UniProtKB/TrEMBL annotation:
PROSITE patterns found in the cross-reference section: HTH_GNTR
GO molecular function: DNA binding; DNA-binding transcription factor activity
Domain of life: Bacteria
Stated name of the protein: GntR family transcriptional regulator
Keywords, sorted A to Z: DNA-binding, Transcription, Transcription regulation
Keyword Transcription annotated: yes
Organism: Sporosarcina thermotolerans
Domain HTH gntR-type: 9-77
Amino acid sequence: MKPSLDENQPLFLQIAQIILNEIVEGHIKEGEQLPSENELSSFYTINRATVRKGLQTLVDDAFIYKQRGIGMFVSEGAYQKIVEERQKQFRQNYITPLLEEGARLGMDVQKIIQLIEKEAQS
């Protein structure tokens, strides 16, 4: 099932994010070839230049690489790099604010952990 695209976010960034998700979820492995620009543009019914821009952001960040005349491939180490970056974002976006709000409410780390465990069980 293809993910729906959000008109409130640049399409090229969404294409890049979809490919990163595919790598993290193990659907595309390191060293494997990505679908072509034409295939992606047809699949998502968007302009090929938009797809190219999304892919180029991944090349610029070294998640994928181009082989002239052949296509784009997932770089070695891409999975680990994506996971590390996302864990850092997760900590900044969720853990730090959670701990700060807990402290404002007089909760220590153990109390927050208890609440998380309780929520995970429900």
